[in-house]
Specification:
181 residues, alpha/beta
Amino acid sequence: MIFLIGGTAKSGKTYLANKILKEKTISYFSTDYLMVTISNVLKINVDEEDDKMVAHKLSPFLETMIEAMIYNKIDYLIEGVHLLPEFVSKLINKYPKYIKSCFLGYTDIAVNDKIDELMKYQSENCWYKHYSHEQMKQLVNFLHHFSQEIKNDCLSYSIPYFEIKNIVNDYELIIDYLFTD
């Protein structure tokens, strides 16, 4: 089975993946690894493009990789912002018995509450740690809008979407969904 977790940046995808890895015996892959590899090898400056544009460039590589995993019967958890509902729907239609997916986002959280959360849980390599409050507001507004797009796309493709209020409290429900037949 290939488990795909997509969603907007800072919605808890990696946190969820780490929880799954602690509970399940499964291999893991982040689409960020592929993005960095392709940008370095093909000299694509992904920093100048939004996640959606990068996702479209990565999708043929991801599709081929996922097809090889299915063919070789390798269970994998793949997570990343570069998985879009349209792409995942295509995979589900092509391989309905082998793909289980969901998306995470946040459309209902207040901007300042999300900023507080992001500042509280930032890691050492946090790419926004030097942002001003105004830059953080712009970032969260952009990510909120992207979450709404993902939520709408999930509805149109009938793919589960989880509204994340606090991933620390929400992750068990998502794991139950992904690993229950």
